[in-house]
Design goal:
With 229 residues, the protein is mainly α. Helices cover 66% and strands 0% of the residues.
């Protein structure tokens, strides 16, 4: 995942030459990079739960820090305690991922979500890297297209499929105290939308230590024998 992300990141920022024929391939690369950027966040998320490298907290912190830095200059040290607050107070005013004032409005909830996780320090880190890239010959347009745009697209993906749909308030009550629901999509679409954190979000709250790729198997293990067969 990281290798593919770096290949598109470096190739797009430093070597992409814009031509009319290259617009469609660039759009495809941006979509792929957005999905890979979502994956970097999910890797860091698993590191926060210790499931990336079980029993090795330093390695989890290191990989999580690098993954969030690559994705969008985010701070692992700042995000980790906020994510654990989300699990302890899910769906309440004390949940940093939740908008108690707008539990059904995606646009208003997103503004709150954005404000929680994006800081001046993060923007400063991105600016420093962007300046360094331009000093090495990259254009600001390529930086915006192949780094900023995929990162923002991934943010929308993480919010909509991994936060809003699983935790929004609607007519269907939540199943339990976790105040989370899994969206009703198949495994492939679940993978493509948010690395199973939409299609299997309730399962994640039931077992936070289960890595993203094992969530479908966790659901199958909980199903009655008649259903599994």
């Amino acid at each position: 995942m990281a290798t593919a992300w770096l290949a598109i990141h470096i190739g797009g920022i430093f070597f992409w030459k814009w031509t009319p024929a290259g617009i469609l391939p660039a759009a495809v690369l941006i979509l792929i990079q957005a999905w890979l950027s979502t994956g970097l966040f999910i890797v860091a998320h698993d590191a926060m739960h210790g499931s990336l490298a079980p029993g090795r907290p330093r390695l989890n912190r290191l990989v999580g820090t690098v993954a969030l830095g690559m994705y969008a200059g985010l701070s692992y040290r700042r995000l980790e305690p906020k994510h654990h607050l989300h699990h302890r107070h899910v769906g309440t005013a004390d949940d940093p991922d939740f908008s108690a004032d707008h539990p059904r409005s995606a646009p208003r909830w997103f503004l709150s979500f954005f404000g929680t996780y994006y800081t001046h320090a993060q923007i400063g880190r991105i600016t420093i890297v962007a300046i360094a890239y331009m000093l090495l010959g990259a254009s600001l347009l390529n930086i915006a297209i192949f780094w900023a745009l995929p990162a923002l697209t991934a943010l929308l993906q993480l919010f909509f499929f991994g936060t809003y749909l699983p935790h929004r308030h609607d007519e269907e009550p939540f199943a339990d105290k976790h105040r989370a629901r899994s969206t009703r999509v198949g495994p492939i679409l679940s993978l493509l939308t948010c690395y199973h954190f939409g299609g299997y979000h309730h399962e994640h709250h039931l077992s936070p230590g289960t890595p993203w790729w094992a969530l479908p198997a966790f659901r199958r293990s909980r199903a009655p024998a008649s259903v599994r067969s």
